[in-house]
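Input chain follows. Return structure tokens only.
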Amino acid sequence: MTTELRYLDFDYSEDTEGHGTFDAMASTTPDKTPEVQAEIAQVLAWAEATFPNARGALEEGAMWDYDLQQMQEDDARFDTVTLSLSGTADFCAALREQFALD
């Protein structure tokens, strides 16, 4: 069963070692930020549940890792959240299947 994402739209890239990275950015009004954060929490909870205790530096043998950044515009009209998920081929394939990422 796939999970639909409303705010996160991922772009995929791959390095020469076969590790993949999914990058997403959501820029919303502050009232929608909790929904974006909930979606991010859902993705990260899935990653931890599916690949438990496997998060860390990929170059040190971990299966997945992430980087999360949040910024608020100076005029406070928009919040921008960026999420990068990196992982092994198995992690990337499972993430693609779970969240219908093409």
